[in-house]
Design a protein that fits this description.
Layout: H1 6-20, H2 52-64, H3 71-81, E1 88-94, H4 102-113, E2 117-121, E3 124-130, H5 135-144, E4 149-151, E5 155-156, H6 160-173, E6 184-186, H7 191-196, H8 200-210, H9 219-235, H10 238-245, H11 249-263, H12 270-306, H13 312-318
Parallel strand pairs: 4-6
Antiparallel strand pairs: 1-3, 1-4, 1-5, 2-3
Helix pairs in contact: 2-3, 4-5, 8-12, 9-10, 9-11, 9-12, 10-11
Length: about 325
């Protein structure tokens, strides 16, 4: 009921009862009529008619929920909402600065990709749009370029909630104050990072397991060696790591000799090098996530300090009630 609304849930139960009582054939399907009222059957059960807007809300709620509804129910909700159910879909999560443009962006995305569903999850303004294939990315960039938004991965429409979940996660991790080109982020470009942060407790355990040799160093030394080791593992050689860090290759080789003393044979074992790279990338992502949380909390404290107690009537107006 929380997912698709009381009226839509009631209509679905009524139709299931009609089917069970033999008053409707299975060939008719599950018809939770949201737009055209049906005659009251002999059992006294009635199908509630819902406005199109509420039908679309019910469909968005169904697609945004992790617990997948049966295909027949999704197909019927889509039919009543006037939303052709695509094979695959993507989620679009708009940043706070872009939320006011949501209706206009929804229309533009509908024109570019087909029908789009607009809704909210917690405080995030989101859309679910059809994914026609590789060309979808260029269309999304054309409409959303320069705006703060996260685009989920392409998924079967019944699994649209997964695309939505990871787009919201990526938007929460995106650094603030980035340039216009980096405001629009795609889950497809950050799959490994999101996979590493799927469970932060495990990510911290991975860091503790493999980066223990760095604990005896000062924070500055540890940070420098971590950056060097990650650049070397990612690039495959000292000259490439030196270019990435903008230092002399001899500096990289000197630091690598230091790390050989700390890590021993691990730097020569392919599996251990893979684990080390995972640990270093996890540490970097966890640090970024922690800084972002502190920044958000800092803004919250600053806002709370600036707000003075209000009378009930004044407070209601501020909250838009």
């Amino acid at each position: 009921m929380e997912r698709i609304g009381k009226d839509a849930a009631q209509a679905a139960v009524e139709q299931a009862l009609l089917l069970a009582l033999g008053l409707r054939s299975r060939a008719d399907g599950i018809r939770t009529s949201l737009s055209t009222p049906e005659p009251r059957p002999a059992t006294g059960l009635a199908v509630t008619a819902l406005p199109d807007a509420r039908a679309r809300q019910a469909l968005f709620a169904a697609l945004a929920d992790d617990r997948c509804l049966p295909k027949e129910v999704l197909a019927e909700l889509a039919r009543q909402a006037g939303w052709p159910l695509p094979d695959r879909a993507r989620a679009v999560v708009l940043g706070a600065a872009s939320s006011n443009e949501a209706p206009q962006l929804a229309l533009q995305l509908t024109a570019a990709l087909g029908q789009g569903l607009l809704g909210t999850v917690d405080t995030d303004v989101c859309l679910i749009v059809p994914d026609p294939g590789p060309e979808a990315r260029s269309e999304l960039v054309a409409v959303l370029g320069g705006r703060v938004a996260a685009i989920g991965h392409s998924a079967p429409v019944a699994d649209a909630a997964s695309s939505l979940r990871w787009a919201r996660r990526l938007l929460a991790l995106a650094p603030a104050g980035v340039g216009p080109k980096e405001r629009l982020v795609f889950v497809d470009d950050h799959l490994s990072d999101l996979l590493l942060l799927q469970d932060e407790s495990l990510a911290r355990a991975l860091c503790a397991r493999w980066l223990r040799p760095l604990e005896a160093l000062t924070p500055r030394q540890s940070e420098r060696l971590e950056a060097t080791l990650l650049a070397w593992l990612e690039s495959g050689g000292a000259p490439e790591a030196a270019r990435a860090l903008q230092v002399h290759p001899q500096t990289i080789r000197y630091r690598l000799r230091q790390m050989e003393k700390l890590f021993g044979p691990a730097l020569r074992d392919p599996r251990m090098r893979f684990e080390l790279e995972l640990a270093l990338r996890s540490r970097r992502l966890l640090d970024r996530s922690r800084r972002l949380r502190r920044r958000v909390q800092g803004r919250g404290h600053a806002l709370a300090a600036a707000v003075h107690p209000l009378g009930l009537a004044r407070q209601a107006r501020v909250n838009g009630l």
